[in-house]
Design brief:
The structure is a single chain. The protein has 321 residues and is an alpha/beta fold. The protein has two domains: 125 residues, NAD(P)-binding Rossmann-like Domain (Rossmann fold, 3-Layer(aba) Sandwich); 178 residues, NAD(P)-binding Rossmann-like Domain (Rossmann fold, 3-Layer(aba) Sandwich). It is built from twelve helices and twelve strands. The strands form two sheets. It has a seven-stranded parallel beta sheet, with helices on both faces. It has a five-stranded parallel beta sheet with strand order 2-1-3-4-5.
Length: 321
């Protein structure tokens, strides 16, 4: 493999930087702005390692760009269709984070239903000794019917874990899956009408953005719970806040938000809401695996081999084995 030049715009996982520096010529810029690169560098760059937005304007101005290796399973920050038209393959980091995110999802669901963070704070504040037992929680996982919105790799791992709790599980995706036994609902609204808990684990795109509407939340009912570990754009946060304020649903658990890291402060006031700062995959173990997959995609590609995890929009550019 001849030594290639890899661009890193903005922040990147330190493991990626360390490994790339040993193998490639690495160029770092503060943000993905073509104006920060001189003509020589523009022509030298053949790969990008990124964890943020890669605008089309940058892709268009790099004539020798072959691959963008993205850190994360969601890649809505890259216009993969545009990249494909420019002959640029895009890879992401699926699978290696699926189990970690699924674990966190179940934890977030339990936190929301059983108010575990609030109960811990009650103890830490000395209130147990002063005021007596923490109040009984209104909600429980017992007897719940759970609808999973998105049954990809992570959704399947969530479902597997929930099976152990003895709950009913159904799902909605664009098309019915032939290899699962969970009940299928042909629309998101129907999924909400038939279940009282909705877990969203879908990417951000034109079909999913703001797809969890006020009608969907109403269909969950007054004992309904909404959990989001996919993308914050799946719901208008004002719609969610209105539903919580008016008892349309009983609670919510969020690991993602519409505009991160901004979080509507109105959500802080709800005792029936559990909030996490987008940490579903945030363990050292899992993030190291994700970092390695970014680097290994680049190594494979520039060694004349197929990319390990190309995204579907650029699969036609994949090398044959």
């Amino acid at each position: 493999m001849s030594k290639r030049t890899i661009l890193i715009p903005g922040n990147i996982h330190q493991r990626i930087l360390a490994r790339l520096t040993d193998i490639f010529t690495v160029i770092r810029i503060s943000t993905a702005d073509i104006a920060l690169l001189n003509d020589q560098l523009v022509n030298e760059i053949s790969g990008i390692a990124s964890m943020g937005v890669i605008p089309n304007s940058l892709i268009a101005r790099l004539p020798n760009l072959e691959i963008i290796a993205h850190f994360g399973v969601g890649y809505d920050v890259i216009d993969a269709n545009y990249a494909a038209r420019q002959g640029v393959i895009v890879s992401n980091t699926p699978d290696v984070l699926s189990e970690e995110v699924a674990d966190t999802t179940v934890g977030l669901l339990l936190n929301t239903l059983r108010e575990l963070p609030q109960a811990e704070n009650y103890l830490r504040q000395g209130r147990w000794a002063k005021e007596g037992n923490y109040p009984l929680t209104k909600l429980t996982l017992r007897g719940r019917k759970i609808g999973i919105y998105g049954l990809g790799r992570i959704g399947l791992e969530i479902a597997k874990r929930l099976e152990a709790f003895g709950v009913c599980i159904e799902y909605h995706t664009r098309s019915k899956k032939v290899d699962v036994s969970y009940g299928y609902r042909s629309s998101l609204l129907e999924l909400a009408q038939q279940n009282d808990t909705l877990i969203a684990i879908v990417p951000s795109n034109a079909a999913t953005d703001h797809s969890v509407t006020s009608e969907v939340l109403s269909a969950l009912g007054p004992q309904g719970v909404f959990i989001n570990v996919g993308r914050g754009t799946v719901i208008d946060e004002n719609v969610l806040i209105h539903a919580l304020e008016n008892g349309v649903i009983a609670g919510a658990g969020l690991d993602v938000f519409e505009v991160e890291p901004s979080t509507p402060t109105r959500l802080f006031d709800f005792p029936n809401v559990s909030l996490l700062p987008h940490v579903a995959s945030a363990s050292i173990h899992t993030r190291d695996l994700m970092a390695d997959l970014v680097v290994d995609n680049l190594i494979n590609w520039f060694d004349g081999k197929p990319a390990l995890t190309p995204v579907i929009e650029t699969i036609n550019l994949q090398r044959s084995i």
